[in-house]
Amino acid sequence: MLHMDIIKKKSPNFNDRVGDAKPDYIVLHYTGTKDAQEACEAYMDSSVALSPHYMVDVDGTITQFVDEDKRAWHAGKSSWGGCEDMNSASIGIEIVNGGHAHGLPEYPADQIEALITLCKDVIARHDIPPLNILGHSDISTGRKVDPGENFPWEYLADNGVGFWPHPDEDDYKANIGVRSGLLGLGYSSQCEDVVLIREFQRRYQPEIFHKNATNVVCEYTHALVNALLREKHR
Ligand SMILES: [Zn+2]
Whole-model pTM? Predict the structure, then answer.
């Protein structure tokens, strides 16, 4: 494990994980702020009631706000695989990035390398499966769009954080409805098809967003869903 310096700040915004919940997911966010300072002020303010476990700044500096055994407040109203208390079930990591409100800046390499090191550490400590590395847009679909279409999910998976689907021939042939496939992966049944597809494609077909194209289901979308389901049921 690489050496990581972690700055500690104690946020007032946390409570106990509910029941016997343990961190079984990592939820990734962008801060949507102009800088780390702006995000930090919110996490230290009890009237804002917001906190991640960790924040990764653009230069790779990591700050911890909440102990891993406590329940940080980053997910809000959310759902994955029927779990509606994702704060109790996860470690939340905020990545400093202006997001859509600030012109969707790229994620710098130093920041992504630090994030990967941190995630691998958390994954090892809590034995978190690759399919349980999620974005806020996966669990608060329709309400949240972070970490956004610039986030390098494939690169993270190539470096041991999460799973990137590589469809095979059978994945193209399998005839499953996209909606039932997405619900099978964990997405909320409360969402309309158009929203589910848009957020799935934001993560797995970001080129559609980069080209300003329309979110339509294509053969490749089907194949991606099937490849993910195959991994889930492996
Ligand atoms: Zn978020």
Answer: 0.97
